[in-house]
Fold this sequence. Notes:
Elements: H1 2-17, H2 23-36, H3 42-61, H4 66-94, E1 100-104, E2 112-113, H5 132-141, E3 150-154, E4 158-161, E5 166-168, H6 173-184, H7 218-226
Parallel strand pairs: 1-3, 2-4
Antiparallel strand pairs: 4-5
Amino acid sequence: GSTTNKLLAAADKALKTGIVDIKEVKEFQEGVFKELGIPMPEKVAELIEELHRILSGVGLLREISARARDRIVSFGERISVQVFAAVFNQTLENQMEEVKAKGIDSWEIGMLTTSGGGSADSAFSQAEILPSSYTSIALHLRPLKDKYDHVPIITGYIAQDSEGKITTLGRDGSDLTATVIGASILASEVQIWKDVSGIMTTDPRVVPAARPVGVLTFEEAAELSTFGAKVVHPAA
């Protein structure tokens, strides 16, 4: 997305010139909250400051590892969930609801992967979800069925390995995050919203007469994704 591109551009600028410039990222976030008419949460300001420190290290050393790049692009998701939580809380407050939304990094509920070694620029990550994640996520989220005390808004696309280092799941990795969470809590349905009307018979940008495919098996969807259909993450 556009935020990921801004983060990567800031990383490349720090790498090539030694200059740390997150003005565009910061102004974009400030503009979002100004347009929404709500104050920017302290957590967002803290994340922006953390991003600045990491980029300062890149600029000082004039080098960036794949792991560092993964960590940098993770800020897009980590900031986004705080934005959505703030919007939800404003809405809930206006409706006099006592339940609050909470922005959560996926590893806080136990989403762990293998060590990806950097996947921010690749279509598919080397990082894979660890089987233990399903049990951990269930333990964290299932209690909400009995005591609905907050709305969890969880980062997609990113996770951590067993050493606590941030990994990414490749482009469209949020699809995988959603389905892993759905499977963990035994959800009856997982909805994935996209900017197209489902999986099409062909690329609608090339062929205007393209039609949505009504029904696909899991195997067919996985095969299409594996061979380049950018609608759902292949592992989702």
